[in-house]
Write a structure and sequence with these properties.
By secondary structure, the chain is of the alpha+beta class. A six-stranded mixed sheet has the order 17-18-16-19-20-21, with helices on both faces. A five-stranded antiparallel sheet has the order 2-1-5-4-3, with helices on both faces. The protein is rod-shaped. α1 runs antiparallel to α2, α12 packs parallel to α16 and α19 crosses α20. The chain is built from 21 helices and 21 strands.
């Protein structure tokens, strides 16, 4: 609210009374007798006035309404540089007012003429040497009986240094405020009662208000009670102990209701005498840094997990199981698959699954890879993320199967497992409705995909080396040495648990003539073809071996020789269809059959049965202990 002229005069006299009491008394008398004609000149000549004016540190400039100076004391000479005789009778606008301040001073003069007394102002003034200084002016007006202004008494003091100091302080304040408001950290000052004295924009925004609205209030006005209690306790500790709290990590809640991780530093706020008058606090949002740190830690955990899994696993299936179980401890997902790529068949087959209902295991892998998210990821060699499985062609099969079990699939993510551009498989995970796969988790999975691929490649290489040691390179069947290793274990189970097993001892009839007549390449074709026939007629628990040039053995666990004979009959029939009728060699086989009940040396018994089949005319089956051969 604007102050009245009377109030402004009161303020003026309070200032003068406090600083120059004798001068104030004299001016009161001047104003009291201001209607006396000619009093101005009498005043100037008055010994008391002259004594006060000459002794005063203030410049006394007495002037008329036409701006002519009629009195000028020694302090005016000192402040402005002109002697009294140089300025008496001159218009002060001609030498005292710089161009930059003229407009402002004329406005003051106009107000004086209008009866609006601006008793106080700070103006720029000129000195004799051309310098511009700032002066604080106090004005008193004398009027005649008709109310017309006759004289103005202006008192001034040089406040250039003071104003410069004020400007510098203001600049520093503005700089501090600008700095505070442009720093993303929350910065605040609190007094010894833990009330906010100054806060920056970030602190106010986090508190859901404005900086001005926080001044004079405490944390209890803006933060949850428990959070405010902790802050209050920390502030109190800093003020009482004089010790700082540096980089204290804590979780807080902002006005938006979200949780954030912050690093808090609080130091004592001292006055110029070193007394603690409050605290200065800086709170830095480290939520992202915390998440990145957690991501790095999880990545390290996963790398260690994969490394251990690779070292401890002998098969890809074992490796896949360990990886999926370990991955689930770090990332919250419901379903997981590791699919292995078979380059020969150009397809994916399921190595391990986790989280699926028992009835759905392996059914979730479609026959056609291009219609499946895992297949698409393998084909394009890029991760695929689907957040609406119901409406995506790539996840229609798995979504439909899970939905039949009452499970709603929310999101699916598939990542190709590759090393140096070579595809080894696909890792696929999914979550149920109500969950999601955040970007950080997807980033983690992608980061470890190459390590998993390297593990698969390593185990594949190890398996290949093992196969070289136990398999025949031409036919792909197990070799002679591996046969005796497996047979020893099978014989041990027979002795311990009476598990019956059978052997088929197979020899290609007239194979030497085939080689001699058509060459070894044709013979190799026959060997490979027979190996394929053996594989086609075996169960998963059965195994076939090439133990000589054209001699083969088939091991049939949990099988009597009567049942083994039926297997031999199927093999003989297929040999006749595929090799005898279609091959230039007219291939047939002689097969001897024996089981573990026939004696301790089952191999020798089966071998003898095979030779008996040859003696009986070849292309037939001879079962040990039976006298009737079977021929096609």
């Amino acid at each position: 609210m604007a102050k009245s002229r009377k109030e402004k005069s009161a303020i003026n006299f309070v200032y003068l009374q406090q600083n120059f009491p004798n001068l104030t008394l004299l001016l009161r008398n001047i104003i009291y007798f201001k209607n006396i004609k000619g009093y101005t000149m009498e005043l100037i000549k008055n010994p008391a006035y002259k004594a006060i004016a000459e002794a005063s540190p203030l410049a006394f400039v007495v002037w008329t309404p036409d701006f002519k100076i009629i009195d000028w004391n020694k302090s005016a000479e000192r402040i402005f540089g002109w002697r009294r005789e140089e300025v008496i009778g001159k218009n002060f606008f001609d030498f005292l007012i710089p161009e930059s301040a003229e407009s402002k001073v004329r406005q003051i003069v106009e107000k004086l003429k209008a009866g609006e007394l601006p008793s106080y102002s700070i103006n720029e003034n000129l000195t004799k040497d051309g310098s511009i200084i700032k002066c604080e002016w106090h004005n008193t007006v004398l009027k005649d009986k008709q109310g017309k202004i006759t004289t103005v008494i202006s008192m001034a003091q040089d406040v250039t240094e003071r104003e410069r100091m004020k400007e510098r302080l203001q600049k520093e304040h503005n700089l501090l405020q600008t700095l505070m408001d442009n720093i993303p950290d929350s910065i605040y000052f609190k007094d010894d009662k833990n009330r906010f004295v100054m806060v920056n924009r970030a602190k106010a925004e986090h508190s859901g208000t404005t900086p001005d609205n926080m001044v004079g209030k405490t944390d209890f006005d803006f933060s949850p009670k428990e959070q405010a209690k902790k802050s209050f306790a920390d502030d109190t500790y800093v003020m009482k102990s004089g010790r700082s709290i540096v980089d204290k990590v804590e979780k807080i809640i902002h006005s938006n209701g979200k949780e954030y991780w912050v690093s808090v530093t609080k130091v004592p706020w001292r006055n110029n005498k070193g007394k603690i008058i409050g605290t200065l606090g800086i709170s830095r949002d480290i939520t992202r840094r915390k998440a990145e740190q957690e991501e790095i830690e999880n990545l390290g955990r996963l790398y260690r997990l994969i490394g251990r899994s690779i070292n401890r696993s002998k098969t890809i299936k074992e490796l896949s199981q360990r990886i999926l179980k370990g991955l689930r401890r770090v990332i919250d997902f419901d379903f997981g698959d590791i699919l292995i790529y078979d380059p020969e068949k150009n397809t994916l087959f399921c190595s391990t699954q986790i989280g699926y209902p028992k009835d759905l295991k392996e059914k979730t892998v479609p026959k056609k890879s291009e219609e499946d998210i895992a297949g698409a990821a393998a084909i394009h060699k890029e991760p695929i993320y689907i957040d609406n499985p119901k409406n995506s062609k790539l996840t229609s099969v798995i979504h439909s199967l899970l939905e039949k079990c009452g499970i709603k699939l929310q999101e699916v993510y598939a990542v190709p497992l590759m090393t140096r551009g070579t595809l080894h498989g696909v890792l696929q995970i999914g979550v149920k409705e109500g969950k999601n796969l955040p970007r950080k988790d997807r980033r983690l999975i992608k980061s470890i995909s190459e390590e998993i691929a390297a593990g698969i490649a390593k185990i594949k290489a190890e398996e290949a080396l093992r196969e070289l040691a136990i398999k025949d390179p031409l036919t792909g069947l197990f070799n002679y040495r591996h046969f005796w290793e497996v047979l020893e274990k099978q014989e041990d189970r027979f002795k311990r648990y009476n598990e019956v097993y059978s052997l088929l001892y197979i020899d290609i009839d007239n194979f030497k003539e085939c080689n001699d007549t058509y060459g070894h390449q044709e013979g190799d074709k026959v060997l490979k073809a027979l190996s394929g026939i053996l594989k086609n007629n075996l169960r998963r628990i059965d195994s076939a071996y090439r133990i000589g040039g054209e001699e083969f053995v088939v091991l049939l666990p949990h099988t009597s020789k009567q049942k083994a004979k039926k297997v031999a009959e199927r093999i003989q029939k297929e040999v006749h269809q595929k090799l005898y009728l279609r091959c230039r060699c007219k291939v047939t086989v002689s097969i001897g059959v024996a089981d573990s009940k026939d004696g301790e040396n089952v191999v020798k018994i089966a071998d003898s049965a095979m030779y008996e089949a040859k003696r009986k005319g070849k292309d037939r089956i001879w079962v040990a202990g039976e006298n009737t051969p079977f021929s096609d």
